[in-house]
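Human: I would love a firmer grasp of how sequence relates to backbone shape in proteins. Take your time, and here it is.
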Amino acid sequence: MARFDASTGEIVMRIVYDGPATAGKSTNLRGLHAAYTTQARSDVFAPEQTKSGRTRYFDWLLLGAGHLDDRALRVEVLTVPGQLAFASLRFRLLHGADAVVFVCDSTPAGLLAARVAWSFLWRTLAVIGASDLPIVLQANKQDLPSALEPCAVAREIRSSPTVALGAHAVDGDGIRVSFHRALDLARARLRAERGGRSLESLPPWSETPEELYAALQRIEGTAMSEQFESALERALAEVKES
């Protein structure tokens, strides 16, 4: 959820890039990093990768994103690890989201993995009381001959995103559009929830990426909640049903 950084007077929002492995989440984040000037962005923080070069915990980027009403706005952009083996980390990272960009492969070969990832995302949001969170479905790899249209991808993976958009993230196509659409939806949601209350009444911002990394390390090896296990089991059941 949105936070207030009293030290700078800025609002801090979090947009989480979710989706299956190799869908293009980290490519989106690197594309955003390249699109912003050095004055408007941080360096990318990526604490660990797997042996195959995939995201192990998360990728993190901080962007200056204009204003929310009369306050400067910063946005934490996070990617989650796509492998289901790291689903407990995804569960934790989604807790603080103000919007989600769900990135998936648009080809028929990628639909099953996308369906499982969508099921886990949707059930996780229900568990944490965030079923109204805006979700932008980014149907990536639209350059491939077999790619389906974004709306067709949404139907095939049984999803109901707020909006579905196409992208070819490797070339940068659709990256900024997806991000700004998610940001606009997050702004609108916060305005509606705030109900005229001062932005300073938001919870304080305090979690640095290093602190988030440490928190995720503590999660691994500990017993997961029944709610998490239920969300994961139901997502995995999608495999058997397909």
